[in-house]
Structures are given as C-alpha cells and as structure tokens.
UniProtKB/TrEMBL annotation:
Residues 7-85 form the CHY-type domain. InterPro entries: UCP017292, Znf_CHY, Znf_CHY_sf. It comes from Corynebacterium pollutisoli. This is Uncharacterized protein, contains Zn-finger domain of CHY type. It comes from the Bacteria. Keywords: Metal-binding, Zinc, Zinc-finger. GO terms for molecular function: zinc ion binding. The keyword Zinc applies.
Length: 101
C-alpha cells in the first residue's frame, strides 16, 4: 500500500519522523489514504485529518511489511505482529490525533 507524506522512504519514514522505529502509517478517515504522520497530512492534504474509530479494520499500516491492523492490535504490540519490526513507543502520544479515543 502507498504511504503518503513528505520525503517518504520505502518503509514510511518521512521528513518529520525518520527514526529506525518510525514505520507506522495511519489511515485518514476523510480521504482513506495512509499517511506517514499528522504533519505530512497537514502540509499536503486539503482537509483536516479524519480520526479513525478504534474498531475500524486496517487503520494502521506497518511500513516495513505492509501489514494492516486495527488500533487494538497496533496499540497492544511493541512490534509488527507480522514481521516483528519494532514500533516507536512514542507514537502512543499521538494516538488522539489519529483515532477516536
């Protein structure tokens, strides 16, 4: 799946978040696209980021392997349940920007 953003690499890292663990993309409920981060969306989209319901399927994407998951699976894991690539634990601080929590 395609991850949108500014200067996005092959695993979904962008100009704003480029650490080794920054491989998670979140789906915007408004446009349905996966975005590298909220700042990329703010820069490039013509609408506010639509927060996904926590029970929505395929709302989070691992940039390392393209595994899609819901919020519960993502928030319970320190790494991708499919490929094992570690996730940035600091992303939890941004959850209210992406999900209806």
């Amino acid at each position: 799946m395609h991850i949108r953003g500014t200067d996005v690499d092959e695993q979904g890292r962008c100009a704003h978040y480029w650490g080794a663990r920054d491989v998670v993309a979140n789906r915007c409920a408004t446009c349905g696209d996966f975005w590298a981060c909220h700042a990329c969306h703010a820069e490039l989209a013509d609408h506010p980021f639509g927060r996904m319901p926590v029970d929505a399927q395929a709302s989070v994407l691992c940039g390392a392997c393209s595994h899609a998951m819901d919020y519960a699976a993502y928030s319970a894991a320190a790494a991708c349940p499919q490929c094992g690539h570690p996730f940035n634990p600091g992303c939890e601080l941004h959850a209210p920007l992406y999900f209806q929590i």
